[in-house]
Amino acid sequence: MGKHITVIGAGFCGAALVRELAFRADAATRITLVGMADTFGSGIAYGAARPEHLLNVRARDLGIDADEPGGFADALHLGEAGRQAFLPRLAFADYLRGELEAAMASAAAHIVCKPQEAIAAERTQRGYRIFLADGEAFDSDQLVLAVGALAPQALPGVGPRLSVHPRYIGWPWQPGALDGIAPQARVLIVGTGLTMVDVALSLQARGHEGGLHAISRRGLAPQAHVAAAGPVVELPPALQQALRQGDLGAVLRGVRALVATGAPWRGAVDALRPHLQPLWRRLDARARSRFLRHLRPYWEAARHRVAPGAAQTLQALRDNGQLQLEAARLLRARWTPEGLEAVLRRRGEAESRTERYDVLIRATGLDTDIDRTSDPLIAGMREAGLLQADPLGLGVVVDADFRVRDAAGRTLPGLYCIGPLLRGMLWEITAVPELRVAARTLARQLLEPARVTTPRSLLRVVG
Questions:
Q1: Is 229 left (phi over 0), alpha (psi -120 to 50) or beta?
Q2: Domain 160-223+305-362 in this protein, CATH class
Q3: I need a labelling partner for 197 at 20 to 30 A (CA). Which of 89, 147, 314, 404 fits?
């Protein structure tokens, strides 16, 4: 009897993994893909996007196949200009669903799609039992958590009345979440990263005229891509040595020196990318903590850039005064008879101030802290001791082959994780180029015989 592999999460990671399995599994293998119905096969990042939301990567680099990075552009029959362009995310959602459907249609394995939320999973003698929101439960030999990032938690300082009030939008990707915002409403947005950009673009597309006040610890907005791709930057030997040695301070100094010589900073950042997973693995807990505390906001703004068109719209909103970015912290927000009251403290100042708004939106982006999540599947597995939280809140603890470690640190047979919840081990594991390689290598491992004398290390392949 063949094995049964279940993948929970039908976004990019889940779709890419099942596609790879479909090409390799024999007729005795059963594969089940579980995911939310409204974004099945594309995930929230692409399936819940609006027409004004653009990809943050050029079309030429977004193929789902690790051997054919230009697959997305090829599928759309794009010319050179189109391959360089930043297309709507909805187009990529269509592409992902099409690739998954085509792979399933040609597969020898028996593949079943279940467009339902997985709400629990428990270990059994043979493998795992998965429970769905519609009441169905089934058993599987192997289980892969491909759930992507977790839904954000309630903002600290938000009062109980406001937390359940329609003027507080804690999840802007919810269908119709922004529909009730009046055109003249004054909106406070907590977060100044990519999610804030999407929110601002959506409100602008709806004809919003009220003020948008976005705050974060540093007040940094994502940098913009240039319209035409720049030259490839080669890292100097001293910088490469610093990367190999895991010397974060020397890496930072090396990048600054490289840019000072005239190298484009975007090219320098992109040149670091193949080295980031090995670098992160070499850093000890203290160095990782320092990076997260002091450098992460600057790195995120430079690494995760927005399309030129999106950046131009954002800049226009800032130039006309409608959008204001500020380095500040939300101390308290509550709903009063007079409306939404927020207490803010600007960075570097001891005094706070009270402001009035009409709407509060949480736009804080990726959440990978499984100790704080309310996600029923992940929280339940953590409480049952099946998952161990990364000490820095960057996801789950796994071994070198992405096999999940339980609360006691033991590797659990047949339980794997892929995607952003592996940031604690790899850091750079949220974008298509890294995820498609991880999906291919994990698919090969899942289909290996149960007893493997020399297990393949995903880290060696991905990194």
A1: beta
A2: alpha beta
A3: 147
H-helix or E-strand containing 7? strand 4-8
CB atoms within 10 A of CB 205: 14
First and final C-alpha spacing in the chain: 35
**Percent of the chain whose predicted confidence (pLDDT) is above 90:** 91
pLDDT, tens digit, for every residue of 111-170? 999 999 999 999 999 999 999 999 999 999 999 999 999 988 888 999 999 999 999 999
Q: What is the phi/psi pair of residue 242, to 5°? A: -60, -40
DSSP structure class, residue 186: -
Give the count of beta carbons closer than 10 Å to the beta carbon of residue 108: 13
448 with 3: CB under 8 angstroms? Answer: no
Please give the structure tokens belonging to residue 355.
């402001």
Domain spanning 4-151+368-462, CATH architecture? 3-Layer(bba) Sandwich (3.50)
Alpha-carbon distances of 393 from 22, 202, 248, 422, rounded to whole Å: 33, 30, 20, 11
**In 363-418, beta strands by DSSP E:** 403-405, 411-417
Distance of CA 128 to the CA centre of its chain: 26
- CA pair distance 418, 408, nearest whole angstrom: 21
CB atoms within 10 A of CB 299: 17
* Tokens linked to 447: 């289909």
Tell me, what DSSP letter sits at residue 435? H
C-alpha closest to that of 296 among 205, 428, 106: 428
Q: Where are the beta strands (DSSP E) in 67-127?
A: 110-114, 118-123
Burial classification of residue 292, based on how many CB atoms lie within 10 Å of its CB (0-12 exposed, 13-18 middle, 19 or more buried): middle
The residues with which 112 forms a beta bridge, in sequence order, are 32
For residue 81, give the 3-state DSSP assignment: helix
Count of C-beta atoms within a 10 Å radius of residue 42: 25
Instruction: Enumerate the β-bridge partners of residue 353.
Output: 344
Reported pTM: 0.93
Question: What are 213's two structure tokens?
Answer: 């006040």
Question: What are 68's two structure tokens?
Answer: 């054919």
pLDDT tens-place string over residues 285-331: 999 999 999 999 999 999 999 999 999 999 999 999 999 999 999 99
- Do 4-151+368-462 and 160-223+305-362 share a fold? yes
Residue 141 near residue 3, CB atoms below 8 Å: yes
Number of separate helices (H) and strands (E) present in the chain: 17, 16
